[in-house]
Amino acid sequence: MGVSGCGKSTVARALALRLQLPFVEGDELHPPRNVALMASGTPLTDEDRQEWLQAVATRLALADSTGAVVACSALKRSYRQRLRHSAPGLRLVHLTGSESVLAQRLHARAGHYMPASLLQSQLDTLEPPSADEHAIVLNIEMPPDMLVASICRQWDICLDEAQPVSENTDMQITKVILETGPDGRARFRDEDVPLTEGKPAARLSALMPCGGLQLRMSPVGFRSEFHCTETPQWLFVLGGQMEIGLQDGSSRVFGPGQHFYSADTLPAGAIFDAQLHGHWSRQLGTEPLTTAFVRA
């Protein structure tokens, strides 16, 4: 759910593929009259949306026992209550972003009947889910694959509580390493962490040495210059989103619950060159960035 331009269809389609469930595009369920109104730049009223909401509710009801992923704006609480009445098992994912990012996406989008001029009316109509709706809220500046991974991770926690403990031997933790490559440039590398200790219900890695824990908050709008890591350290994102950029122009975004090992240190004997060495970091979205550093 979310306003136009938030990426509902992209994320929902990818999530449906990951979960091997049918995908339903809510935009395709609008009656022709609604499509004509929106194409002409006329915002829909509650009355206009009734037939459409019923169509979405019917599709959800048909899939309530087997599952489906639906992309639907569901801007008002009353709309979502109507959908949940037809599908008691309804789960919500609310995709949010700044007005500027949404507007930029809408202006760049082609082949859709919804004009960018209606964005403000949707923002005015939006009633974000309240706590009792138990929605997953995600920032759209994260790549779609990371949004899908975050949704699956949060839902898996809920599912695990209702399922027996598995003897699964394939459980694995991936250590994302930010390091200095042979050419002196920063790069990312993935490495599996062996879980050789503990029990099937709580597998553990070997105990790792630690030089201390430090917490940090970065305000909205923060961005660093290129720099190297002074001391190798684990970095855990506790709140907000953090983007790490490399000299080759690529970047990765880390959200709450995600982590990486920062070991992009200046090569021995080298003098720091801002055109070659290091990486940059910045805060994304509307929430300050909260991180925990665990020194190696």
Concise description?
The chain has 296 residues and is α+β, with helices and mostly antiparallel strands. It has helices at residues 8-19, 32-39, 46-63, 77-86, 99-108, 119-125, 144-161; strands spanning 23-25, 69-71, 93-96, 136-139, 173-180, 186-193, 197-199, 202-204, 212-218, 233-239, 241-245, 251-254, 259-263, 280-284, 289-295.
In CATH, the architecture of the largest domain is 3-Layer(aba) Sandwich
CATH superfamily label of the largest domain? P-loop containing nucleotide triphosphate hydrolases
**CATH topology group of the largest domain:** Rossmann fold
Task: Write down the overall geometry.
Answer: globular
What is the H/E order?
HEHHEHEHHEHEEEEEEEEEEE
Helix content: 25-40%
**Measured distance between first and last alpha carbons:** 41 Å
Structural class: alpha+beta
Taking pLDDT < 50 over at least 5 consecutive residues as the criterion, the unreliable ranges are 157-167
The radius of gyration over CA amounts to: 22 Å
Within the largest sheet, what's the order of strands? 6-5-13-10-15-9
DSSP helix count?
Answer: 7
Query: What portion of the residues fall into strands of 2 or more residues?
Result: 25-35%
What is the number of beta strands? 15
Short descriptors:
296 residues; alpha+beta; Rossmann fold; Jelly Rolls; 2 domains; six-stranded mixed sheet; three-stranded antiparallel sheet; 7 helices; 26% strand
